[in-house]
Amino acid sequence: KNQVEQSPQSLIILEGKNCTLQCNYTVSPFSNLRWYKQDTGRGPVSLTIMTFSENTKSNGRYTATLDADTKQSSLHITASQLSDSASYICVVSRSGSARQLTFGSGTQLTVLP
Amino acid sequence: KAGVTQTPRYLIKTRGQQVTLSCSPISGHRSVSWYQQTPGQGLQFLFEYFSETQRNKGNFPGRFSGRQFSNSRSEMNVSTLELGDSALYLCASSPEGGTYEQYFGPGTRLTVT
Fold first, then answer.
1. Is the CB of B68 inside 8 Å of chain A's CB atoms?
2. From CA A109, how far away is CA A40, in angstroms rounded?
């Protein structure tokens, strides 16, 4: 069964600290993996997209890694800010159409001052 | 370029009624996908339209339907509303769909009472 599991479910950190979110998937065949940030009551916003051949991709203070062999990805946030408080969703695409996207349930990150 | 727009942003309906939600994709994007997001189930794929044709459909009952117009704008209709249909409905557009980057709208918050 194609699944995407994220951990932890929720995370609370202090402003300025770093954190790492995890994503494990069993989706096959693999096309690409995406990380989205979703603020409460808003649509998800893409942070990174990685294909099979990419190990690391950065977007400002966000760095995503992908190990296609172990089917694991992580999202590292550096020097967290209050505005980083959001849900972070890992999405894996098999191929072709949107029908083939498998969504994780997200990690709810709270950054406290 | 203007982003994906969805109307209305908030909606309250009574059980048994029907509702129509609208999505205007980014100019030039031909693919529109619809998703339902609830706290318990996360993001679930409803359907995808491309060039006025439904290309893929998720596992939702026939009460959920959609269509796409020649200008790529899309509408989603839910008939005979149930309490469980209360959710955030998101649409996403992309140039071609599938593995291309998807851009989400802000969503329509539907509450069924």
1. no
2. 11
